[in-house]
Amino acid sequence: MKVSASDWLLLSPELFLTAAGLLILSISAFFDKAKEEFLAFLTLLFVGVAIGLVAFLSGYGGRGAPIFAGMFIVDNFAIFFKLLMLVSIALTVLASIQFVGRAPYPAGDYYALLLFTGVGMLFMVSGNNLVSIYVALELMALSSYILAGYFKLEIKSTEAALKYFVLGAFSSGVLLYGLSLVYGIAGRMGLPDLAKLFESQAKSNLLLVGILLILAGLLFKIAAVPFHVWTPDVYEGSPTPVTAFFSVGPKLAAYAILARIFYVGFPKFHADWGLIIALVSAATMVFGNVAALLQTNVKRMLAYSSIAHAGYALMGVLGFRTEFGLWGILVYLLAYTFMNFGVFALVVFLETKGYAAESVADFNGLARRNMTAAVVMLVFLLSLAGIPPTAGFIGKYYLFTSAMKAGYAWLAVLAVLMSALSLFYYFRIAAAMFFSEAEGAPLKSSYALTAAVLICAAATVIVGVAPQPFVEMLRACVIKAP
Amino acid sequence: MTGAQAVPGALLTGAAGWLFVIFAVLALGMAIAVVVARNPIHSALFLLSSFLLVACIFILQQAEFVGAVQILVYAGGIMVLFLFVIMLVHQRGVRERLTFQHQWDVALLFVLAFLLPFLYVLWTERFPDLPQNLDAFRTVRGKIAGNTQAVAWVLYRDYLLPFEVASVFLLVAMIGAVVLGKRSAEKVD
Amino acid sequence: MKVLTPTVLTYLKVVILVAVVPAIIGFVVVLAERRLMGFMQARLGPNRVGPKGLLQGVADLVKLVTKEDITPSRAERAVYFLAPVLAVIPALTALAVIPFGPAIRIGKVKTTLWVTDVNIGLLFLLAITSIGVYGIILGGWASNNKYSLLGGLRSAAQLVSYEVPMGLALVSVLLMTRSLSMVEIVHRQGRLHLWFIFPGLLAFFIYFVSGVAETNRNPFDLPEAESELVSGFNTEYSGVKFAFFFLGEYAAMIVISCVAVTVFLGGWLPPFPHVAALKFLRILPPLGWFLIKAGLFLFGYIWFRSTFPRYRFDQLMALGWKWLIPISLANIVIVACAILATPGRSNGMFVLSYIFGGLFVVMFLLAKLRQKLARRERLAAIPASAVE
After folding, report:
1. Is A479 found in the same domain as A369?
2. Residue C57's CB: how many other CB atoms inside 10 A?
3. What is the ipTM of this complex?
4. What is the DSSP string of C174-194?
5. Does C touch A (3+ CB pairs < 8 Å)?
6. pTM attached to this predicted model
7. Which of A74, A169, A315, C40 has its C-alpha lying 20 to 30 A from C376's C-alpha?
8. How far is CA B65 from CA B13, B59, B152, B166, in A?
9. CA A129, chain centre distance (Å)
10. Please, which residues have CB within 8 angstroms of residue A107's CB and are 6 or more apart in sequence?
């Protein structure tokens, strides 16, 4: 295996982010609690540079071919996800500054772990070999477990970390078992090699079991039914900025790698996994929406809402060998990242103001105490429900169309019905904000958090109002099915 | 174990085959005992024996390196830490309770629900033939070396990138242990 | 000579090892240790049984076998019984891969002075010795005695900690040996005319210190620190079971010595075999050289024991994690760089030998100088009136 300068260049965002994490970790020892904000800004700067590097790579001609003995690939698909994930990390840092700053825990380790999670995610979406994918997935998962339990003196945070860890480890075991079955049958791990081998081989039941187990392991990370049970507890217990991050960052990586493994590695079995994913998608959206409807705790409700959205998003994987392909899921995830992070960022805002954001009542009269927050929240809720002219509508439109084109009309109809159902619980919050009586002084937000929320809102509105340039750009990012 | 006497494609025939069956059955028995044993220390010991038996199976298949590492890492390192923790935490008075008292019937149902299809698949599967030339797993640069050298050759060339990612993974595990284990929530200077 | 097939010979060698090594331990090593300790502490040591006390081992054996074998009433019987066995077996198993001498011919029978030469020899040794800890941990736990339990816990932490620097020290030597086979390691030292102790001086020191800690010997004998824990993990053991623990500890010591001799001290090779003037050293058979070197290493053990006071547990952990592990990691980098940076396959090792040798001499001189200065200072501090 020869490693050329071009290979190192293609690897530069990951290398840079690793170095940045190590640097933050080592210099954090010299910052006491009062000066930790500097570390946050440094982290932001590093993430910014990494975004710049990825952006540079998007114009770099040498990309596209697997490097490092076929372990790593930088294609448009990976670049889209890397950009989106890095943005989600930057947003998380913005949302964390005040939240973590007030808590009695050192912030340096927190930002370093956030960066290492990022390293895992970046490696994951570029994984072209089952081994490199698995190792990167574990890196991401392990960092997430620690982040979930970062507020270790709070019993709920510890509970969240423990549940996440135990169930995550179990799902990793399932995934690994699937990988080992596939390796045992194929004797190779590279995704394109697998596809090439299976092309000429008869279908094997054991292989299907392996694929099923891999799917189960990945669906756990996505929090799809029936692997969703960890989600409400983890989302409720984790520090809220971390929850906001969990609801987008690691999920993006999991969607990306699910699509890559099944599109590049197992195209021959698309009829099998397609049907399973469709069924899981249906179950997930029904369960998520119904459970969210019955919830009064806002964080748990949003957790179930994000489960429901996982159900929608899975429809985007179904368009195998249609003209849509993965286009739908890409457009949807672009919208989802901003709108879902935005909602959680506003929960962070309420929490920094002393409201637990446990019940809908905490949102009472928000419109009178901070009009901007209320309006922005309304935008996010509309977008989540899929009402035009927001990004959520565009995303869902492409998703549903892609499911229709793939021949899953029943699923698209179900999804529309479920979206209508979701209006009920989203509007409970909206009603509380605008029509309930307020008490207390106006609430002021910190600059960093305001910036995060406004970025999310701007993205949600812009993609919703003028989707054309983004949608066209994403068309070039899909993985072509062989 | 010295290598050279391997018959290509005939790893699990004859005496080696019987040894494999013995080791495998024992390993499974020990694994069941881990779950069934009421005393956690006994569970840990059964797990230890299971690890050692699996190491024997590795060595039987001429993967000496993996076998030795299995003993070194799992038996010599991880299980010692397990015992360490159990001894620190474990109260003698409570050990006679059945651990899986509440849900063993449900658990059994699920186990069967997964096991039966699995057995069916395994039963009906036509397994690919064993690779004829086992020396391929011991060859480095065209010369037959040990299994250890072959593993190193693959690990540091083809799988270099995952190897390095794994090092970051271990670093994060270490950071996590320190972050979560530090006694004071205040910053320690 | 159809009877002595290779298989039969192997069994024979196993029997000899299992019979001879405990005998050597009982009659030679223990006695030598006690007499040496006596000498170093300016007292006599055992000298009553037999001529000059040579039969002390027999007396000990009789005492241990005839003593009442007590099992505490609330002990975990099965584990309590298993623990001493687990302490002995790994140490004796490890001896199987140690080459005590080259291939030889006695009369018409050709054989080797090792039981087996596996191609993962060194790794096998590390793996097997790492299992030896279970005897101590389980013995400490099963006794149902808080001192025993504390001893077992200490032992678990200590052994896991010191396995790391020990393994890392051996890794740096592996860069030079290019093989894990114990026999091949000795042969390579013979071909290079260089014992690996010279390029691996740092590794040797780390190995020695970790080896002492791995075998729970003074000054790292915290699992059985009698001033704190009565007798640690073996407090409740008596009779034959105690003898097994005893045997296990000394067998482990012997294994550590044999590995050191094989890996660092050229195994069965006589010193400087390529120097014509020293040809007469070959009068001693290879086995003799091996035993002499192993004996010297064991002497180092005993010397070490009577020189240093026992460490505190936190000091022990600090030494392992904060000093030995970083140093051994740095050592690996240094060795790897030296081997890669010098042209030719083995020149790097000679360069390393000079570097480490020079460093060693410099440090030795510095230590001497410091000693001298300190003495002068002490003398200067004594008032003139007191010097009379």
Report:
1. yes
2. 21
3. 0.89
4. HHHH----HHHHHHHHHHHT-
5. no
6. 0.87
7. C40
8. 22, 8, 10, 19
9. 21
10. A28, A33, A36, A39, A40, A96, A100, A101
**B97: distance to nearest CA of chain A, Å?**
23
- Are A201 and A229 a contacting pair, CB within 8 Å? no
The answer to whether residues A278 and A194 touch, using CB atoms and an 8 Å cutoff, is no
Kindly state whether residues A164 and A221 are assigned to the same domain: yes
Residue type for A482, please? P
Of B48, B68, B80, the CB nearest to C156: B80
Chain C neighbours among B 4-63 (CB < 8 Å)? 39, 41-42, 45, 48, 52
Nearest CA in chain C to B92: C144
* Residues of B within an 8 Å Cβ radius of A: 117-118, 121-122, 124-128, 131, 157-162, 165-166, 168-169, 171-173, 175-176, 178-180, 185-187, 189
- Residues in chain C with CB shorter than 8 Å from the CB of B42 are 79
Among chain C residues, the shortest Cα distance to B63 is held by C120
Cβ atoms within 10 A of the Cβ of A135, count? 26
B122 and A138 within 8 Å at the Cβ level: the answer is no
Same domain, A13 and A128: yes
Give yes or no: residues A321 and A334 share one domain. yes
A344 and A231 housed in the same domain: no
**Per-residue pLDDT reduced to its tens digit, B36-79:** 887 788 888 899 999 999 998 888 877 888 888 888 888 888 88
Peptide bond before residue A226 is cis, with ω within 30 degrees of 0: yes
The pairing of strands B143-144 and C109-112 is unpaired
Residue in A12, A115, A126, A139 to test binding to B, most B beta-carbons within 10 Å: A139
Looking at the fold, whether A216 and A151 belong to one and the same domain comes out as yes
Which residues on chain A place their C-beta less than 8 Å from a C-beta of chain B?
A: 1, 18, 25, 32-33, 68-69, 71-72, 104-106, 109, 112-113, 116, 119-120, 123, 129, 131-132, 134-136, 138-139, 142-143, 145-146, 149-150, 152-153, 161, 185, 187, 204-206, 209
Place of tokens 């120097």: C275
- Sorted by where each starts, the structural domains of chain B and their CATH numbers stand as 3-134 (1.20.120.1200)
Q: How many CB pairs under 8 A join A and B?
A: 95
Find how far residue C340's CA is from the centre of its chain. 31
Least confident of A97-101, C252-256, C363-367: A97-101
Q: Which of B125, B157, B186 sits opposite A204 (nearest CB)?
A: B125
Chain segment C22-51, per-residue pLDDT in tens: 888 877 888 888 888 888 888 887 878 778
Same-domain status, A363 and A261: no
Q: Quick one: A368 and A223 in the same domain?
A: no
Q: Tell me, yes or no, whether chains C and B touch by having 3 or more C-beta pairs under 8 A.
A: yes
Distance CA C331, CA C337 (A): 10
Q: What is the span of the domain harbouring residue A437?
A: 269-482
Contact B76 C149 (CB under 8 A): no
**Which sequence spans correspond to the domains of chain C?**
68-341
Q: Which alpha helices (DSSP H) does C41-103 contain, by range? A: 56-66, 77-94
Residue C54: both structure tokens together: 């040579």
Digit-coded pLDDT (tens) for A216-230: 999 998 989 888 889
Please give the structure tokens belonging to residue A196: 């090439």
Look at chain A and report how many structural domains it folds into: 2
